[in-house]
Amino acid sequence: MRIFTIFFLLFVSVLSCNSRSSSDSSKDESALGPLDKVVTYPVTVDLPTALQDVDEKVSLSTFVESIEYIPLKLKDNYLRNNFQACYYDEKAEKIIISDYEKAVVVNKKGDFLNRIGSVGQGPSEYIYLAAISTDPSRQKVYIYDGRTRSLKRYGYDGVFERIVFKSEVPFIHFLFYYDDNFITKSNTYFYEYYQRKMQDKLYGYSLCDTLGHLIDTTPHLYHRLKDIAAVNYIQPIADNITRCKDVMLMVEGGLADTINTVSGNKITPRYFLKYGEGTMPDINKLWHPDNKVRVEGMNSSFFINSPAYETPRYFFIKGEWKREKYIICHDKYKNRSFSVKYRDDTPEIKENELHVNIGFRNDIDGGFDAYIGSVSSLGNYWVAYVDAYAMKTLLTDKHFASRKDVLDKAAQEKLKALVKNLNDEDDPVLMLMKVRDNAK
Predict the structure, then answer these.
(1) Edge-to-edge order in the sheet of strand 314-321
(2) Which parts of the chain have pLDDT scores under 50?
(3) The predicted structure's pLDDT at residue 278
(4) Among 34, 65, 100, 396, which is 20 to 30 Å from 368 by CA?
């Protein structure tokens, strides 16, 4: 009898294991071994190991449990489709969106609530919206006017409050609010005057107080260039600053080996990218004025082409290696670097010049293979947006027919109905991707 009971329990156990979906990343972590949730920074991400360990089982559901689509209702394409920023404040349930001309606030249904400031030359206006950042704890919005180099503060209601300060440094192009200070980014395109006259004063990122005084700086990669006084180097891709739940990540475009953050009023390393033979970039090629030399440099190294993101458990950054596109992932709890291949060069995208942020294969509802656009204020959501025309062009009946094996068929049907009711000229659609608890 005891033997029968043992076999019965084993049989039930096997059935239980087989009933789990192989795509469902919410499976019991204990089956994968113990996780070390104590992370010591800076963390080293091994790029050669990640590029060799391509994990084809990793899809969007590994990190995301559900997707909510929010069609914007801004009327007459009030914002251009190429958004500059999109921040979701979870507590206020408001979303701040901007292009390079306007900034608006919408609710979680996509309804227009109000504009933030306006274009003009008055004290409360801005000429060129170079950067926008938020302080969710106080419901404030900071806009940096790149033309006047003025940092201005507004409430979520769009009402102008004050000029915080005016930058005295002519090549400061971006300012981002973070923890009662501001992170700045200097101009990364070097003209002869700056190269020859001001190269000792140029820096990559800096930390300013609320009066605009420099607290700390970190040198730009241009310091590693050879013959900087003789060659007019250029940088092939812009630097990036991304705000995750409790941290800012700063990435020098193209070939960063250190991803910095701010801690204790200091710019400090957060991640080290460990390159190896075949992936080590040559800065003198990547920033060379000759396009052929730059392309050669990009094709012979791992070339970063996106901002960095993190959750308490994972780190992400996109890049290219040997003409293939990868999402580099690092599981900090397991100290494992791995990668996921992706493609954003489908005929539909090339033919129509659609700008779509392609990423992890969408096995949840079979929609876009989505990637992170921004992180919500509490870190519970990844936010992205999709142009309405892109949705109509890419999410066809043929596409959905190829994505029948999804985790949420009801969500897929709902997405199909949304796409069917869209018009090409409609405003973009926001995507709120709820991050899994075991991915946070």
Answers:
(1) 303-310, 314-321, 324-331, 336-342
(2) 1-32, 188-197
(3) 80
(4) 100
Q: Where are the alpha helices (DSSP H) in 24-85?
A: 47-52
Cα 317 from Cα 294, distance rounded (Å): 21
Mapping DSSP onto H, E and C, the string for 219-233 reads CCHHHHCCCCCCCCC
160 with 117: CB under 8 angstroms? Answer: yes
Question: Quick one: which of 241, 203, 195 has its CA closest to 219?
Answer: 203
Among the listed residues 57, 132, 137, the one whose alpha carbon sits nearest the alpha carbon of residue 102: 132
Hey, what are 93's tokens?
């349930």
DSSP single-letter state for residue 261: E
C-alpha dist (Å) from residue 15 to 5, 9, 23, 61, 344: 15, 10, 17, 23, 39
Residue 202's pLDDT is what? Answer: 63
CA nearest to 112, candidates 76, 136, 81, 83: 76
Alpha-carbon distances, residue 432 vs 134, 271, 381, 384 (angstroms): 18, 27, 6, 7
pLDDT of residue 283: 84
Residues 6+ apart with CB under 8 A from 408: 66, 364, 365
pLDDT of residue 288: 84
| pLDDT at 193 (0 to 100) | 44
- Of the candidates 96, 109, 174, 171, the one whose C-alpha atom is nearest the C-alpha of residue 139 is 96
| pLDDT for residue 3 | 40
CB 119 within 8 A of CB 79: no
**DSSP strand pairing (43-46 vs 266-274):** parallel
Tokens 């106080």 locate to 138
